[in-house]
Amino acid sequence: MSEPAAATPTRLTVLAGPTAVGKGTVTAWLREHHPEVWISVSATTRKPRPGEVDGVHYHFVDDAEFDRMVAADDLLEWAVVHKLARYGTPRGPVLEALEQGRSALLEIDLQGARQVRERMPEARFVFLAPPSWDELVRRLVGRGTEDEAERERRLDTARAEMAAEPEFDVTVVNHTIPAAVEELVELMRS
């Protein structure tokens, strides 16, 4: 049974890291095992992958709707990712969760984390790192969701993202999903 919402706003936690490090898998495990944590659902212009559900994994929107959200300042952050699709965090639900005193998590890319740092510097910024570069490459290739050109584009992006680790408040190494989630939850409680 979850505890009642706190009377005062909580601190936002921002989780970012290189492509294929397991951010989505960590977030899915967190959602399943820690339902008390509110997790933001990003909007994106990319097409759903097999098994992804609109409104659960992402809000899948077309370019016109994304443009409208940007123009209305409805996004806390947004970016073009992998030089292809746009992703963004709807602002209203984040602020509402924090005002209700809920533990709140954003799982976003590096560009988005930098924008959130400008708008909400009081947030806690967590870098999810792979155990090694070779393991990151293995995970990316093992997903089988991208063609060779897309894998190379993502690896180029990942190299730049790995170099940004010092910008974060703390690093969690994703050796295993359960251990990474428990470390993240402990950080959110502190």
How would you describe the overall organization of this protein?
- With about 190 residues, the protein is of the alpha/beta class.
- It has a single domain, classed as P-loop containing nucleotide triphosphate hydrolases (Rossmann fold), CATH 3.40.50.300.
- It has seven helices and nine strands, in the order βαβββαββαβαβααβα.
- Strands 2-7-1-8-9 form a five-stranded parallel sheet, sandwiched between helices. A four-stranded mixed sheet has the order 4-3-6-5.
- α1 crosses α7.
- It is globular, with a radius of gyration of 16 Å.
- The model has no long low-confidence stretch (mean pLDDT about 90).
Compose a concise summary of this entry.
The chain is an alpha/beta fold and 190 residues long. The protein has seven helices and nine strands; from the N terminus they run βαβββαββαβαβααβα. The protein has one domain (12-189): P-loop containing nucleotide triphosphate hydrolases (Rossmann fold, 3-Layer(aba) Sandwich).
